[in-house]
Amino acid sequence: MNPPTFKDHIVAPSLLAADFSKIADEVVRAVHSGADWMHLDVMDGHFVDNISFGPAIVKTVDQIDDIFLDTHLMISRPDHYLQRFIDAGSDLVTVHVEADHDVAETLGRIRAAGRLAGLALNPATPLSEVEPFLTQIDLLLCMTVVPGFGGQAFMPEVLEKITAAARIRSANSLAFHIEVDGGIDPSTAPQCYHAGANVMVAGSSTFRAPDMAAAISAIRQG
Ligand code: DX5
Ligand code: ZN
What we know:
Blueprint: E1 10-13, H1 23-32, E2 37-43, H2 55-64, E3 68-74, H3 78-87, E4 92-96, H4 103-112, E5 116-121, E6 139-143, H5 159-171, E7 177-181, H6 189-195, E8 199-202, H7 204-207, H8 212-221
Parallel strand pairs: 1-8, 2-3, 3-4, 4-5, 5-6, 6-7, 7-8
Helix pairs in contact: 5-6
């Protein structure tokens, strides 16, 4: 199967909303419900005001299933911890432009390791901050909430930034995915697709839905 392009709709349930008392079952449930990617939110209690999990859990998830692992590093020093998340089996590693590192170098290291490189920006960060790196990425993550916690409300003001990013992508014949993360559900996903995003991260609206398969399919449909 060819790898997905930015024209394909991809749904990535966020493990943060899973029942941590049975992580293996939850990963299998997501896979059986039609998840395309598994989104893994790594938080260090410093870059964001929450602590989640580290490379050991990423590795555990990698051993459970061969689903594509989309690791989102909300940590202050992604350059320092990068290799551990690569070794743990991440297929895509996304780092924040606001973190304390040489962004170009970190992105280069991710690709040199044969993984996809993602760059994230917070709702308050202007697109101009990521523009210098757009030729070096496979995915741009536009946060649609202030990162740190699941279950927050979608911020529609980010849509404009997604539209602008998609425009720059097409003007420069680039092909990176645009991912959205935070408050994505069957009602907000269509607005994001319309603006030009194609990867929907969804935590609460998938793992906590009465029917996870139906929720994933509704989000994918847009
Ligand atoms: C937020 C995380 C998200 C979060 C999304 O800091 O990056 O991935 O898990 O959760 P929901 O879908 O519940 O907003
Ligand atoms: Zn995330």
